[in-house]
Write the structure tokens for this entry.
Amino acid sequence: MQYNRLNFQYQESPHANAFSGFFAIRQELYDWRLWVGRAVVLAFAALAGLIVVAFTWLTEQAFAQFVWLKSSFWWGLCFGRQCPPLPLSG
């Protein structure tokens, strides 16, 4: 028996009988706070996975646009580059 300080009474220990494993499993399954925590972790894991998939899709789209632009307007890439530095005569 254990003394419960919150209720000021003695309670039987969950480890006192042979079926304490069932008590622990029941406590684990019926505690809603644990399930909320698990749901939050799973939701953020799914969100992280979706962000990775979205970033991959965006990079593939950007590369496809670059390839199309390069094949259609091969001379257009010259305008996007910086001019070489001019030699300074002093």
In short: The chain has a mean pLDDT of 78.
